[in-house]
Amino acid sequence: MQYLKLLRPKHWAKNLFLFIPLFFFGEIFNGQKLLVVLYGFICFSLLASSIYIINDYRDIEADRSHPVKSKRPLAAGTVSKSAALIIFALLVLIGFGIAYSIDQKFTFILGLYFVLNLAYSFGLKNISILDIFIVAIGFVLRIKAGGAVANIPVSEWLMLMVFLLALFMAIAKRRDDVVLKIASGKDLRIASKGYNMDFLNTSLALVSAVIIVAYLMYTMDQVTMARFKTYRLYYTSIFVIAGLMRYLQIAYVDNNTGSPTSILYKDRFIQITILLWILSFYVIIYLPTNKSFFE
User: Fold this and answer.
1) Using CA atoms, how far apart are residues 57 and 121, in angstroms rounded to an integer?
2) Do 172 and 139 belong together in one domain?
3) Helix residue spans in 122-236 (DSSP H)
4) Residue span of the structural domain in which 175 resides
5) Per-residue confidence (pLDDT) for residue 295, from 0 to 100
6) CA angle 21, 22, 23 (to 5 degrees)
7) In the listed set 116, 133, 154, which residue is the last one of a domain according to the structure?
8) Contact partners, residue 197, CB within 8 Å, separation at least 6
9) Residues 107, 221: one domain?
10) Of 107, 190, 206, whose CA–CA distance to 148 is shortest?
11) Which of 24, 175, 222, 254 has the largest count of CB atoms under 10 Å?
12) pTM of the model
């Protein structure tokens, strides 16, 4: 169980972003493409787990002073350093081995993701603002990889919105670090020295507003409407706005935004909002009776 915990499988949910190009391109029921993206999901999950191991390995001492991270296997001493490094090497070899057998472009993007996150773990995470941008770029690489492995073009709008959404969640996570800093009197993350509550609150409000505007512009763009053969995509914005407002409520009212993944697994409101957003897009994109605007 401790070895499984070391891999942080709950965070593999982030790699579901690989399926986004497939969904938006109307190919989610293409069995062959779905299978190859699933292999891509496995590769990203293996490499992501390897990065988590290196990150935990380097942060053992710092994690021991954190109320939550102190329970991680390496910080708690339930998994040895040597065992962790062996698992790291195996994950990297298997992940890149599968990737290379699938597609070279996908392997290149996976390599970029791996190198960027290694650099993050080895010091870039300590540079304020740059740390949250690297996290956001990681999500953009995921959807680029999903498009590459399925041979599907990824629109600039989609990349922009994914980047903004990931940036929003990264800011919220840094805000939680500042909340813990205020409560404990300790800097639990070096980059936290470059943040305070006013800056992060303003950044959250700013990025959430940009997300809403960008999403509305995307859904009402002539090219988008022509691609999906409908003008109704803007209907789905209600769920985007509701989800963002709920996340802001968790941040500002509950002061509990430590892990976006945990919120995804636990918060029923956000789960229902995401489900309704997916369902509404499915109805608009996949049901032919709704494609009447350009026909």
Assistant:
1) 10
2) no
3) 130-149, 156-184, 197-219, 222-228
4) 155-295
5) 45
6) 90
7) 154
8) 175, 178, 179, 182
9) no
10) 107
11) 175
12) 0.86
